[in-house]
Amino acid sequence: MLEFFPAFLKAFLVGGLLCAIGQLLIDFTKFTPARILTGYVVTGVFLGGIGLYPKLVEFAGAGASVPLLGFGNLLAKGVRDAIDQQGFLGIFTGGFTAAAGGIAAALFFSLLAALLFKPKEKN
108 and 100 in contact (C-beta within 8 Å)? Predict the structure, then answer.
């Protein structure tokens, strides 16, 4: 039945569910947002490492690949690919290589925002 849903609807539902779980964790637990974000990345690494997350991405598209779980999956995939190519050394380099473009873009746009906007003191 779910194969009849348009791709954008599947992405919206899965991405929304992931966000709703995060909001519930913020509202009903004592976890800090930083711990929840870290938990999402680690969960993405784990699910990607055992091969379940790519199936979710295949189903939900951007609804699963864009959130922090997708970043964790990207790290796991990078490590897996690097191990296949470089052996043991790939454990240490694969995640950085796979995520280098996204990390570089985040750093660039953060620097750009810091240069363009002046911070103000909170009162």
Answer: no
